[in-house]
Automatic annotation (TrEMBL):
<dbReference type="InterPro" id="IPR013083">
    <property type="entry name" value="Znf_RING/FYVE/PHD"/>
</dbReference>
<dbReference type="InterPro" id="IPR052113">
    <property type="entry name" value="FYVE-type_Zinc_Finger"/>
</dbReference>
<keyword id="KW-0479">Metal-binding</keyword>
<dbReference type="GO" id="GO:0008270">
    <property type="term" value="F:zinc ion binding"/>
</dbReference>
<dbReference type="InterPro" id="IPR011011">
    <property type="entry name" value="Znf_FYVE_PHD"/>
</dbReference>
<dbReference type="Pfam" id="PF01363">
    <property type="entry name" value="FYVE"/>
</dbReference>
<dbReference type="Pfam" id="PF16696">
    <property type="entry name" value="ZFYVE21_C"/>
</dbReference>
<feature type="domain" description="FYVE-type">
    <location>
        <begin position="39"/>
        <end position="94"/>
    </location>
</feature>
<keyword id="KW-0862">Zinc</keyword>
<dbReference type="InterPro" id="IPR000306">
    <property type="entry name" value="Znf_FYVE"/>
</dbReference>
<dbReference type="InterPro" id="IPR032031">
    <property type="entry name" value="ZFYVE21_C"/>
</dbReference>
<dbReference type="InterPro" id="IPR038632">
    <property type="entry name" value="ZFYVE21_C_sf"/>
</dbReference>
<keyword id="KW-0863">Zinc-finger</keyword>
<protein>
    <submittedName>
        <fullName>ZFY21 protein</fullName>
    </submittedName>
</protein>
<dbReference type="InterPro" id="IPR017455">
    <property type="entry name" value="Znf_FYVE-rel"/>
</dbReference>
Length: 221
C-alpha cells in the first residue's frame, strides 16, 4: 500500500471506521457521517411518533442522523460509503439504500477495479488504441494503459453514455458494446471526450467488457 493510500482505524459515536489517512485520498463514492439530531430535540420517534421514555429508548440512524425508536431503527446493515468496519444501525428507509449500495461495492466496484480491454478513441481522432481500462485501487481515477497512459479523475467525469446494440422498438435484449465519456481537464473548462469500443476479435473478452460497461453505468448514477 502506497503512502497516499494508507488508512487508519478511527472510532466515532457510530462505530469503528477504516478511513484514508489523508482526506484528499478519500473515495469519490464516500459519504461524511451526518450530525445526529440532539436528544433534546426529539422527544418522539421521527418515524412512528412514539414517545420516548425509560422503556422506549431512542436510537440514531447512522446514515441520516435522525432519531427513532428501536422498532423503526432495528436493522444493522453494512455502510461501506462511510467506511464502517461492521454493520451499523439504520432506519428502514436508509437500510434499503445501503443494501443496494453494498451490492454495488461487492460486485460492480470489483469488476471496475479488475478492468477490461477496449479500443479507445480520443476526441475526434480516427485512430483508436487498444487499452486496459480499470478503476484505481483508491477508486479516484479511471486508469487507461496501452502504448499511451491516461488517468482521469472520477469527479471530473461529466457524462457517461453507454452504447448498445440489439434493441428493438418493440422490446428485446440489448448488450453494451461501448461507451462515450466526457470529462473536464483539471485547471480549465475544456471538456474532452473518449470513446470506448469492445473489441470484436477473440483476444477481447466480450462478456467481461459488457460487465465492465454495465458497472460503469451504475457509477454514473
Amino acid at each position: 500500500m502506497s503512502g497516499g493510500d494508507a488508512k487508519k482505524l478511527v472510532r466515532s459515536p457510530s462505530g469503528l471506521r477504516m478511513v484514508p489517512e489523508h482526506r484528499a485520498a478519500r473515495s469519490p463514492f464516500g459519504l461524511d457521517e451526518p450530525p445526529w439530531v440532539p436528544d433534546k430535540e426529539c422527544p418522539r420517534c421521527m418515524q412512528c411518533d412514539t414517545k420516548f421514555d425509560f422503556i422506549t429508548r431512542k436510537h440514531h440512524c447512522r446514515r441520516c442522523g435522525k432519531c427513532f425508536c428501536d422498532k423503526c431503527c432495528s436493522k444493522k446493515v453494512p455502510l461501506p460509503r462511510m467506511c464502517f468496519v461492521d454493520p451499523v444501525r439504520q432506519c428502514a428507509e436508509c437500510a434499503l439504500v445501503s443494501q443496494k449500495e453494498t451490492e454495488f461495492y461487492d460486485k460492480q466496484l470489483k469488476v471496475l477495479m479488475n478492468g477490461a480491454t477496449f479500443f479507445v478513441t480520443l476526441g475526434t481522432s480516427d485512430k483508436s488504441e487498444l487499452m486496459v481500462c480499470r478503476l484505481s485501487n483508491n477508486q479516484r481515477y479511471l486508469v487507461l494503459d496501452g502504448d499511451s497512459h491516461y488517468e482521469i479523475e472520477i469527479i471530473q467525469i461529466s457524462t457517461v453514455q453507454i452504447l448498445t446494440e440489439g434493441f428493438t422498438p418493440g422490446g428485446g435484449n440489448s448488450r453494451a458494446i461501448g461507451m462515450i465519456l466526457q470529462y473536464k481537464v483539471p485547471g480549465s473548462e475544456e471538456v474532452m471526450q473518449m470513446k470506448f469500443t469492445a473489441g470484436e476479435d477473440f483476444s477481447c473478452n466480450k462478456k467481461l467488457s459488457a460487465a465492465w460497461l454495465a458497472a460503469m453505468h451504475k457509477v454514473s448514477k
